[in-house]
Amino acid sequence: MxxxxxxxxxxxxxxxxxxxxxxxxxxxxxxxxxVSNVASSAIPDVPGRISTPAQPALLEYxxxxxxxxxxxxxxxxxxxxxxGESYPSVERLRTGMxxxxxxxxxxxxxxWYKIIFDEWLRYPDRIGKDLYVxxxxxxxxxxxxxxxxxxxxGATTSKRILIDRSEQILYAYAGDTLFxxxxxxxxxxxxxxxxxxxxxxxxxPTRYMQGPLQGISDQYYDLPGVPWNLYFTEQGAVIHGAYWxxxxxxxxxxxxxxxxxxxxxxxxxxxxxxxxxIVRD
Length: 281
Known about the structure:
Layout: H1 2-31, E1 59-64, E2 77-80, E3 89-93, E4 98-107, E5 110-116, E6 131-134, E7 138-143, E8 147-148, E9 159-164, E10 169-174, E11 177-183, E12 196-199, E13 202-213, E14 217-231, E15 238-241, E16 257-259, H2 261-270, E17 276-280
Parallel strand pairs: 9-17, 15-16
Antiparallel strand pairs: 1-4, 1-7, 2-3, 4-5, 5-6, 8-13, 9-10, 10-11, 12-17, 13-14, 14-15
């Protein structure tokens, strides 16, 4: 009898130990720390968390900063057909030009940018061979690239741009505060800058402008890298930098509003899509 009781007591003790061990293991598994995947998009919303909208990808541009001016009064930086001094020069690049790039290449101990024109062109046949420029004469720029309202209303803004054709002056205001006052060049007699009230509906840091313009002007021109463009009419009136002349304060354009490139950059970065543009005499 005693032997039988001792046997069952031993079984009961072993069962109790087994149950205790199972409980310990279960507790460790339940309370083990969880590893979160930071890159996962399945992070649950937490009350009070401020969501940050995704930022648009930035595009690569360069601005020519150490070259000739509008009248080629000094030696111009040249664009070449390949990344090196041994390649033929095909384009004189003047200070103030802004150009889109597709990256860099190292050659001959120097860094070279490859220039691309990935926009609509009026005369695409004028684009010939590849174009490269040495990094020594330019500064890199990251920008959102072309932006437009896309049929939507622009942001509510207290900013406005006033263009006075008779004074050849541009005024930019934030509310009642004057941001800048700049000498400009509006359209010539037969290609005037249109009068009226308009809206900045499109922005782009660079534009390849070409002529002649059917029904507007028979003049030939070919201007890559026109910088800091604020479009305000569907017919092509634009506020932009002009690197090919310095006659600001006089009528000079085919209908656009010309600014010195550095001033155009300042205005471009200040102006929002939807900013009113008032053109008056």
